Amino acid sequence: MKKMIALVLAVMMLVPAFALADNIIKIGVYEPASGDSGAGGKQETLGVQYANFKTPTVTIGDTEYKVELVTADNGSSTDKAPSAAQKLVSENVSVVLGSYGSGVSIAGSDYFKNANIPAIGLTCTNPQVTAGNSHYFRICFLDPFQGTVLANYAKDALGASTVYCLGELGNDYDQGLITYFKQAFEGLGGMVITESFPTGTADFTSYLTNATAYGADVFFCPVSIAYSTQIIQQASAQGLAIAILGGDTLDSNVVADATKGTNVKVVITTFYQEGANEEFDTGFKAWLNENPDMLTNNGGNDVISAVSVMGYDGYYTALAALQAAGSVDGAAVMAALPAVTIDGVSGHIAFDETGDAIRTSAFVKTVNNETGAWEFVTEQSVSGN
Amino acid sequence: MNVWDTVFPYLLSGISVGGQYALIAIGYTMVYGILRLINFAHGDVFMVAGIVMVYIASSGLPIWVCIPLVLLITVFVGFLIERVAYKPLRSAPRMSVMISAIGVSYALQNLVLYVTGGLNKQYPTIPWISDTVVIGPAKTKLVTVITPILVIALVVALVLLINKTKIGMAMRAVSKDFETSQLMGIKINNVISATFIIGSFLAGVGSILYFTNYPTVIQTSGAMPGLKAFVAAVFGGIGSIPGAVIGAFIIGIMENIIKGLDVILFKAGIISGPMGLATFSDAFTFALLIVILIVKPTGLFGEKVTDKV
Amino acid sequence: MKKKNNIGSYITLGVVILIYAAVFIAEQTIPSTSMLFTVLKKGATYALVAVSMNLLNGFTGIFSLGQAGFMLIGAYIYGIFTIPVSMRGQVYQYFDGGLVQFTLPIIIAMILGGLAAAFFAFLIGLPVLRLKSDYLAIATLGFAEIVRAIFQWNGLGPVTNGSNMLRSFPNFNDFNITDAQGNVTVYLSTLIPFIMSGICILIIVLLINSSYGRAFKAIRDDEVAAEAMGINLAHHKRLAFCISSFFAGVSGAMLAMYQTTVQAKSFTSAMTYEILLIVVIGGIGSVTGSVLSSFLFVACSEWWLRFLDEQQMIGDFQVPLLRNGFRLVVFSVIIMIVVLFFRRGIMGDRELWNLNFTGRRKNKGDGK
């Protein structure tokens, strides 16, 4: 028996060793696959996987390398993030993509920094992810920008004068976006009330009551998908009359499904609207429908989430950086990244001096309560950001 | 809006969630009464009942088949836990049994994490009790109203069972004196199994009500309600079923009042802006626990026990 | 008797020196990205908190579940007082840089973290230590939850940064010695946590073997008898509680250094349960056992069992069941087996220095 086990273990060790015989380059995918943001993380990973499926190799210099994705589940929590980050580091990845959620990105940041591995943030919008370091880059817009867009929308389109904001305690994404929203909205002369709920809360009825009691015109909850579906369903049961406003995390078919058949108006800002790039849309959907596992990871249907698009663009940004560096060494890629530009599905990507993508517009979308589909509302730009 | 209109919605939420805690708390208090064991896994049994419902309902069975099936499976899980994890430790020190309970809790959570992939599962909508009703100044699901009524009905039935039937008498005897009742010919293992079966059944009912109100289930869903229900059991006097129920209602209501305390104080003109007191909605339960343990360790309705040397 | 103990002590000393030397050499030779060092750093941190919990649960018989709360206090105090002033504007971005505008040396901040934890333990101990076993457990568990809520409250934001992350404080990697170009010349990032943890555990061992330690064990074995022998129950229980919490606080500071960020929401009761399970696997009442099982636990959960979470192919055969989360299922089964069938854990209540090295069988009970 013992010999058997030893044999099995030996075979397992050998398999990766054989694989190494080819020219392989590893890209780390640092995303949550479980926890509150697990649904979003899986969709973001799908985008990367699809890009890897389309372009499985990259030519650096004269050598063709096979790209291998190494995934690590950061569990949507900052205390599980270190070991996930360490796993990628110990696998010697050349560049890291991720994460969905700003808190885990910040928590893993030092591990990548110490190992000289550059990281490309896909949808972590908190400014703190890239501020004050040279190894973290990002291809999405930032919260000061998103907060301003949302505040303008709440003021102009929804005609709000009082906004009730609800975020999760200790979630950097929620708290950051709420802060910037508050700054912008108060700058427009509105009033903002903020509250936070402890992690793991399931009962939001009292918070919804609070919003009504304060006389709020808009309920702003840029929270994880897991919480937002709860909030929408409980809002529907309570007959919440005001609109629910959310950030990019709410752009998921899971949220749309929860809204379907209710009377709750859900408005969000995001990176991409289905239909903007026909080629990507059809290709991605076909790929999803061919792989039942992938379809499950996408929440059971083939609606495209913006985070998948960002995953897709992130992968090509990484490939462009590898080619520009002409090397698989992390430090060389890091040095090459600031100058990388690509025309992605979500728009043109170029980095500014902090390593953030220069983005000037966001899409505003809402859920059709009857069909449960995302509908395009407007594309909003903010000058001076 | 007058004060009542402001406070009423919180009371309503509180009574609803309190009733659901009560159903879990009964399981804690009965097990403690008989085995002197804090069954840390009880909250997870509640969560497992929720997950089982998600999977059974997704198989397409009609809901009137699902509900009894879920209760049956929950009861079986409770029974199995006792047989596997607690029975072999009957003669071991109490600390070992408690550690075993923590181990079971850890195992159940990890098992569900594995099965669900760590993602939130959408609880199926159960017709009728999910309908929206309007009560006074608040709008809510019908389940909110049904919960307290159902809880009281179940508690009356349970008290009758304990006071009027043979198994009930055996339970009372075992909780008074474990060894003597054994000598008197009571089949102690049957009594203990019956206790776990009743407790799990009520947790199953509680999970249906709870998740209809708050419709997502994840492996940690049972941890907080479980702890709060336990606090409720201690508050009411552990071993006392009416005590556990009253404790649960008090905790449910207080918790929701605290979530709305900022608004209530704000409306009353006591404070000028939100103070973030909602942060303490969970912590309050535990503060209450510590206070009650210090002031009246036997709880509201608990009996005084003398220590045996 | 005395003589044999000495032999045991010398052997233990030898083993410990060997381990430290091995760690030092490994660190200079193996690439620092290896998973080994993650395991060693986290293991050293957990070893300290497991031993501190064992001091209470195993040696004094106080069943406390407040460990996560005390670690939280230690971690926060450490973080609050060591974040460089220049970074405070960024970390405390929502609170204008926070109130505290100075830094303390790392060691001072760690000790302060421990003292703060001990102080809170003293306060909470006044009322709750009168309670009996499981009531005490649930009260301390509740206390940890309360601490977590207080540290998350925005009202204390200027000090605790509200519910937001503390970061940028010195971590284990800052102990590496670097040359002028920033290249590491001597790696110390694993040895230092070993030394920190080692010193603290040594103090605990010395305490256990002192007259206080004997009093603790007497309380564990029989409270009434111990009181009759003239041991001041309240005093000794409080002492054990405060000392244990002090070291839990120090290990919290180490955890902060390991994680490089601190956030109150991660110090849940699940963390306490994990530590309790480590103590149980190692053997309740054995310092050596707690240390061993900490490293085993961390290595299994972070490293050795990781392959269970990923699809594995043997030839063309895909091993069934393996996917995200399976590792934890296997892990919980192992724990349940230990809890049910090997209740004495790895070491029972024996210690490395009490093991019979001379080959003669030792009679049960004359280990002291």
Explain the overall architecture.
The complex is a heterotrimer of chains A (385), B (309) and C (368). Chain A is of the alpha/beta class. Chain A has 2 domains: 2-141 and 277-354, Rossmann fold (3-Layer(aba) Sandwich), CATH 3.40.50; 143-270 and 363-381, Rossmann fold (3-Layer(aba) Sandwich), CATH 3.40.50. Chain A has helices spanning 2-19, 38-54, 81-90, 102-114, 143-156, 172-187, 205-213, 225-238, 253-259, 278-290, 292-297, 306-325, 330-336; strands at 24-31, 57-60, 63-73, 95-97, 119-121, 136-138, 162-168, 191-197, 218-220, 243-246, 266-270, 341-344, 347-350, 361-367, 374-381. In chain A, the strands form 3 sheets. Chain A has a 7-stranded mixed β-sheet, sandwiched between helices. Chain B is mainly α. Chain B has a single domain, classed as ABC transporter involved in vitamin B12 uptake, BtuC (Orthogonal Bundle). Chain B has 12 helices and 4 strands; from the N terminus they run ααααβββααααβαααα. Chain B has helices spanning 3-35, 42-58, 63-86, 94-116, 142-164, 166-176, 178-183, 188-213, 223-236, 241-259, 261-267, 281-295; strands spanning 121-122, 132-135, 138-141, 216-217. In chain B, helix 1 (3-35) runs antiparallel to helix 10 (241-259) and helix 2 packs parallel to helix 4. Chain B is globular, with a radius of gyration of 20 Å. Chain C has 368 residues and is mainly alpha-helical. In chain C, strand 2 (177-178) and strand 3 (184-186) form a beta hairpin. In chain C, helix 3 packs antiparallel against helix 5 (106-128), helix 9 crosses helix 11 and helix 12 (269-282) crosses helix 13 (287-304). The longest helix of chain C is centred in the N-terminal third of the chain and has 28 residues, at 2-29. Chain C is globular, with a radius of gyration of 22 Å. The chains are: A alpha/beta (385), B mainly alpha (309), C mainly alpha (368). Chains in contact: A-B, A-C, B-C. At the B-C interface, helix 4, helix 9 and helix 12 of B face helix 5, helix 6, helix 12 and helix 14 of C.
